[in-house]
Write a structure and sequence with these properties.
The protein has 202 residues and is an alpha+beta fold. The protein is built from three helices and eleven strands; from the N terminus they run αααβββββββββββ. The protein folds into two domains: 44 residues; 153 residues, minor pseudopilin epsh fold (3-Layer(bab) Sandwich).
């Protein structure tokens, strides 16, 4: 009787030991290989370039909208100068409303997101003039030899402006556009889906 109880106890102890043992190295290796295969299939489908183009368009739109608000609140012109080759913008508080930079005026620099650039588009946004440059408009000012637009104290801008942005690798589906309307100072965002432009909120 005591011997059979001992055997049952030993058997239970072995079962518990096996249950607590966890995964074998082979099982872990199989799981890691499967995760690697799934990740390898999923990652190429993510278009990081598209996200960079979206981020750059959001940054540029935020610069325009913030400058418009500051022009209204401070009752002074705000100049945005586009350095296309340098992939950045200069924001100038034009204290004397001279449409240029004068000594003592505040100036800030805002680069585009990494991996993004101002570009000539493959086609223009519907209802806008054919672009002659990545940043184009009928009445753009020139500051530092670069194209510039001013937001005035009433919130309007000094010119209509079309700004085209894309990723470093620039297929049509990565192209983004910002259309600034002179009379209202309002900025609309557009996204190219590869064949046509569509309005977007970014």
């Amino acid at each position: 009787m005591a011997g059979s109880a001992l055997r049952v106890s030993t058997l239970r102890a072995r079962q518990l030991s096996r249950a607590r043992r966890g995964f074998t190295i082979i099982e872990l290796a199989v799981v890691l290989i499967m995760v690697g295969i799934i990740t390898g299939m999923a990652v190429p489908r993510l278009n990081y370039q598209r996200y960079r183009a979206d981020a750059a368009a959001r940054v540029t739109r935020a610069v325009l909208q913030t400058s418009q608000r500051q022009a209204i609140m401070r009752q002074t012109n705000m100049l945005i100068v586009f350095w296309v080759a340098g992939r950045r913008m200069f924001i100038i508080e034009d204290a004397n409303n001279s449409y240029t930079y004068d000594a003592g005026e505040r100036i800030r620099v805002r680069p585009l997101e990494e991996g993004a650039q101002f570009v000539m588009p493959t086609a223009q946004v519907p209802g806008t003039p054919s672009p002659t440059a990545p940043v184009s408009g009928a009445s753009l000012a020139t500051v530092f030899g670069l194209p510039a637009v001013a937001f005035l104290r009433d919130g309007a801008s000094s010119s209509d402006v079309n700004i085209y942005i894309c990723s470093a690798r620039c297929p049509p589906e990565n192209q983004r556009a910002l259309v600034l309307t002179q009379s209202s100072g309002r900025t609309e965002a557009w996204r190219n889906n590869g064949s046509t432009w569509r309005r977007t909120s970014l």
